[in-house]
Amino acid sequence: MTGLVGAERGIGETSLVDALPEAVVVVFAAVTHLADPWFLFGLLAVGYWFAGDRLAAAPRRAGATAIAAVTCAYAATALGKAWFAVPRPPGAVGPADVPTWLPGLLSAWYEAQVLSDGFGFPSGHATGGAAAYLALALVYDRAWTARKRLLAGGAVAVAVAASRVAIEVHYVVDVLAGLAVGGGVVLGSLWLAGDPRLRGGSAASRASSPTAALDPTLPFLLAAIVSVGALAVAVASGHTGEVVEAGIGIATGAGGAIGWRVVGGDEPAVPVRIAVPALAVTGGLWVGAYALAGTLGVTLAATTAAVAAVVALPALPERIGRLSGARD
């Protein structure tokens, strides 16, 4: 399907990027971390586990729905990359033009940032960033004002998108598509989750506690279904890297739906004494899933377990309390 999105899709941005001072490009290389998958899912998990009612009327429902929305966004990215299968800009292939004034450790970091493989359309960072920061702005509806939340989320998403062009791993069209897909997926996910602001609910429910009606089950399942489509396209086209990404998308969507089944939605914040060991366990599973990417079955199992544990964790303290009470 490369005819729909041309491999040579630049609009002259390369010459503008080449004129940027080296220090500016280094700053953009740091900004791009704000939409790294590990950072986004870590941020979303922290909000899901620890947010209180000062941020949302139903913080567990809000946080889980944000995770589901971003999972859908990554599933859409995997499908798009496998479908269009167009390369990144030549600058992403290397060799990297590392500023000579960077110390050794930062030189290695910078080189890792400005070199990237895989397909280029749409930008995963732009898609994930737009989805995550828009979702956070919409579900944590008691923080600041709606205007401030949307401006802040939009500013971060645009900065991330610009950073991907500045470090020459994407064209402008890639990040614009990512921003559009990320924003659209979030709105669709919130609609599926039952957000009264998008479902035409009563004025009272839209104004007072829209997150109280959220149920992330359908967005999680949609992410798994879209990822199945991405997997089918990737297998048919022989795109090995996208097969792994699609598999992880299936596992993440399925794991989220499974984990949510044990959560009531009105649980309090997770105690730190439980969150810290849980983070170690789920983080280990997540790292293992990527480390064993060559063994797809193991990757799927580890990812499903990790995501299910993250989503189910708010229900754990009450269950531990019940077990302790039963023993007494």
Automatic annotation (TrEMBL):
Pfam families registered for this protein in UniProt: PAP2
Residue stretches spanning the membrane: 23-50, 62-84, 119-138, 173-193, 214-237, 243-263, 270-292
Keywords: Membrane, Transmembrane, Transmembrane helix
Domain Phosphatidic acid phosphatase type 2/haloperoxidase, chain residue ranges per copy: 65-190
InterPro entries, per database record: PAP2/HPO, PAP2/HPO_sf
PANTHER family tied to this protein: AT30094P, SPHINGOSINE-1-PHOSPHATE PHOSPHOHYDROLASE
Name of protein: Phosphoesterase
Organism: Halorubrum salipaludis
Lineage, highest ranks first: Archaea, Methanobacteriati, Methanobacteriota, Stenosarchaea group, Halobacteria
